[in-house]
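Lay summary

Proteins are chains of building blocks that fold into shapes. Our project writes down both the chain and a compact code for its shape. Here are two examples, one after the other.
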Amino acid sequence: MSTQINVRIWLDPVCPFSWNTARWLDAVAPQAGARIDWQLMNLAVLNEGRELPQEQHARLRDSQQIGRLMAGVQRDLGQPGLHAAYFTFGRLYFDESLPVGTELADGVLAAVAPLRTTSESLSDTSLDAAVRSSHEAGQRALGDVGGSPLLQVRGRTFFGPVLTAVPVQDSARQLFDAVVGLAGVPEFAQLQRPRAAH
């Protein structure tokens, strides 16, 4: 009899590598018997106070605004709403290159029909506390400062896996089993290789 594997992922919706990881995890979860708990992290919070190149500022502004939108949906509809909103956002933002703004927000909200959240949440600073709280919970679980995504399996939290594309067929399950296996080895700390440019 198989035992359900509980997995928690913290991700920033605007991170392209996390979009790959999320799609991999969402696809492999049913065949692996995994239950996924989706949580927000935030690159804008992560990079507070840092001197960054000018070209990164737009991505961090997107991160802040979409973090608010997702926090509003999660407040209204919980995990199912956040999951649906994130995957709708990813298709619009990454696959269709729709910029962050009212049109994108309305497209996301139309897919989930939240109770209170509107496109005005993009600029609603009252939602920042919820985003920060979720982000900081992920950093505490990691026990260090880590980027997006963070993955927790069997009570152990890792930065990654960072994916340059979504693994297909058998590779997707092999990667999941490898991550679960590594989580079961208390002595394991890190495994890394150079990644191709995205």
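And here is the second example, written the same way.
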Amino acid sequence: MDTIATMRAFVAVATTGSFTEAARLLDLVPSVVTKRVMQLEHMLGVSLLHRTTRKVTLSAAGEHHLSRFTTALEAHDEAIAEAKRGVERLSGPLVVKVPATLGHLRLNDVIYDFARAHPDVNIELLSIDGPMNPVAEGIDIAITAFPDSFNGVADEFLWPLRRSLYASPRYLAGKPELRHPAQLAEHQCLAYRPAGSTWAFRHKTGLISIDVKPRLCSNDMTLLLQATRNGMGIALLSDYVAASATERGEVVKVLRSFLIPDLWIKAMIPLDRLGRPRTTALLKHIRRNFQIEQRSDHTDHQ
């Protein structure tokens, strides 16, 4: 059974209100349209249409599924059309959500490069922190480090997000050496609000969780980095955020023998948009641009 053909037959009947008109629209005989709709109903185990000698109307199940089937067919037809045009001629809208800090420091330029390479793709770039349901918000690709998942959405894991504890040499000067996470109770801590104030550490003795009382809490990691550089306390930061400050000696890693469990940067994509060539092409572009950085991060953690 050709599922696309059965959905197309059902949508045509639902749109025209007639098997005869649907057959004319699809350039088929009415009996073929009838058979395909019946095949779809059998596969789903529900009646999609109410049939009388005078008219055809949607059942409750038919009303529920019509918009979904229509969207799926549009995505299928668009994917086939773009594939025929070739990858160098990608076109159409693409709504992308990225976290504010990750976008500013790493992803925005990568997405700009993709837009320049494909001028027929119209990109709407949303800089938003926190988890979002891409289906509900009409987003094609939502990039996040949060573990949340949603129905009807595929998770495409991109790369691990390395994190460490950082402090400035000025803050550490004159203080006892940090040897164990339990000592954080004696220190000023700076917390990234979305990640919370319970910090987890991985050690050869097992997993350790410490509840800290933040002196400063923010959803802006660049603000926390600035506070760390200014000697306000110890912060749990993503390594890519602190990389430049570390190279300049403005901040250093502390408790290096207690590793912070990785988060994973992932792309959440609605299932009905997963096969679109422009979506696939952007994901490949992002992965390709971060392969070298991933290897560099891995080497730095060894």
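What can we say about the second shape? The longest helix spans residues 60-85.
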